[in-house]
Amino acid sequence: MTHLEVGWGGWRAVLHVLACGGLLAACEMGSEARPLSSSLPPPAPPPAAVVVSPPRQVPVPAPRVAPRRVVPEPQERTLANQALARKLGAPGTRVDDPCVAPLAAGCARTALAPFFESLDAMSAGTASSPTVIEAFGNSLIAGDRIVDILREDLGAGFGTAGRGVLLVDRMAPYGGRGRTGFSKGGWQPRTLGELRAPPHPFGITGVYHVATAAKARSRFKLEGESHGTLWWLDVPNAGALTVLSGDTVLARTGPSGSGLSKSTRFALPAGATTVDVVAEGKGAVVQGVVLQQARPGIVLDMLGVPSADASLYARLEDGALRSQLLEREPRLLVFFLGGNESKRLEWKRTDLKTLRADLGVLLRRARVAAPSSACLVVGPMDAVRDAKDQGKAFTQRPFLEAVVSAEREVTLAEGCAFFNLYEAMGGKGSLERFHRSGYMHDDLVHPRGRGLDVLGHLVTDALLRAWAETPPSSGSVASLIPVQPPPPVTAAETPP
């Protein structure tokens, strides 16, 4: 058969192929072709099929759940201090906690964030190490009772982890031994509060003790601490220091006469009840002894020195300041300052410009040495003129409020928090109320007894309220202070 001899069935197959445009895949095989019409254009080929892949499942991170901050249940003593504060007309006040990491719509981080985050970790049970607080200051805290309230109240809520930094002996022939070892003598104390600068530099305690005889000894009762550190000064021609527990030698220093502040660590035997520090020869210098546990909890180092102010804290040797704060890893630096400054302003021994400059230098030095720590300045309490001036009894010290304002301004500018103790205890006239209730010494400068407890409570209460009311932050520690070289030591002050 020739190509002209194709039957109808064969032409139908040909027409079906033509109608599909040769794209057999786009036609249903075996379907009937439509009849051709001269009035209709040939059908357009269908669009190519588009294969759509199913959407990829991207995991959505779970929203961050902020820790719930709840002030610990107050102890019976705390409730008693609250009641006494109300009776004395001491209303308390809030902490000024400036923003150090501002956002367009608010604040990502405040000055106290490092300390608050440590409280969060202890509250949540995720902390792995102690939360250390370094409390610098003057005679207001040197007796330890004000900061003891802070230590005990925070410890009751978050646990304790040892006594921290202690001294081998008292700073004076009088006073308690809650923060010192027990000694029968043989140690001479020197402090940064002395009118003339002592011959050796100070570490962060602001105190050192010189052995005045060979075999000078100080004994510390242990409270379950697992390890310790001896801070000592490597002075020329001084003997070694030995750390013992019973008859067991735990550590021995190797002096070379370098003049540097040094640190010797030691482990405490399980079940030990005491540890002794012994000077093998005359002239050995001890800056402090650290006794601490490894568990989470509050450790508050009392570093107050009578007569201290921001200017005298320039006597802290920079190497010791950096190395000892690095070792302590504090989460909060607290400075109780302003009382001596207001007196020295009245005596014309300083001026507000110097006060501002010295406080700024102190805060910058401390923040450079402890960049992961929050910082807080507690201003002076109410103060009156000299108690010996009978004609001006209970007359407010003239520069007091100027000191409070200057300290607050400098503190906030340096990225630290500020607590106005003068306002918290009731402002002008509050010291007279404390005195008439029997809570001031006759010098009308130093509170006593439960008056000290009330002042400590005002600080603790404000810190805990600030923690509970501040939204948790995120990110690394914000720092507004550039690293600067250590400041020169200021000249000693002459007494009036």
Structure description:
This protein has 496 residues and is an alpha+beta fold. Helices cover 27% and strands 19% of the residues. The protein is built from 12 helices and 17 strands. The strands form 4 sheets. Strands 4, 5, 6, 8, 11 and 13 form a 6-stranded antiparallel β-sheet that branches. The chain is globular, with a radius of gyration of 36 Å. The chain starts with 7 loop residues before the first helix and ends in a 27-residue tail after the last helix. The N terminus and C terminus are likely disordered.
Output the structural class.
alpha+beta
Strand content: 15-25%
Distance between the termini: 139 Å
* Helix fraction bin: 25-40%
H-E string: HHEEHEHHEEEEEEEEEEEHEHHEHEHHH
Number of helices: 12
Q: Which whole number gives the mean pLDDT?
A: 85
Radius of gyration: 36 Å
Low-confidence stretches: 1-41, 475-496
The number of strands is: 17
The coarse silhouette is: globular
For the biggest sheet, the summary is: 6 strands, antiparallel
Organism: Myxococcus landrumensis
Protein name: SGNH hydrolase-type esterase domain-containing protein
InterPro entries: SGNH_hydro_sf
Region (Disordered): 472-496
